[in-house]
Amino acid sequence: MGSVVACGLIANAHGCRVDEGSVHSCVINGKDYGQLLYTLGVMGWLMLVTLPAGAFAFVLWLIVLSSSKLAKARRELTGRWNMGAGKTRDVFALDAISMRIRRGEASRL
Questions:
Q1: pLDDT tens, position by position, for the chain (109 residues)?
Q2: What is the pTM of this model?
Q3: Three-state SS for 83?
Q4: Alpha helix positions (H), the chain
Q5: How do the domains of the chain map onto residue ranges?
Q6: Tally of CB atoms within 10 A around 37
Q7: Which helix (H) or strand (E) holds 1?
């Protein structure tokens, strides 16, 4: 959005015409800045696509972040871990299983 504002200010200050249809000559201090002003003006159209896409990505990121934090808080509160396929185990039971494995008693699990 800043590029469009800058383009408009520069063009108006020097009496130049800028539109998205074509490049118009704009001589400032003996140098033609028409192509640069055209590029700055057309960058506003890119903003129309990138701002909504960025907002969508931000909202998606917030959803993933909040669900992750909620799941972590739920695990810490209940002391249970999801083992996949609908199975859950207590954190303390997992500690007992790891102790049995260390002692070589894994066959009785």
A1: 788 888 888 888 989 988 888 888 899 999 998 998 999 888 888 888 899 999 999 999 999 999 988 888 877 776 666 555 556 555 555 566 666 676 666 555 4
A2: 0.49
A3: strand
A4: 2-13, 34-78, 91-103
A5: 2-65, 79-109
A6: 24
A7: none
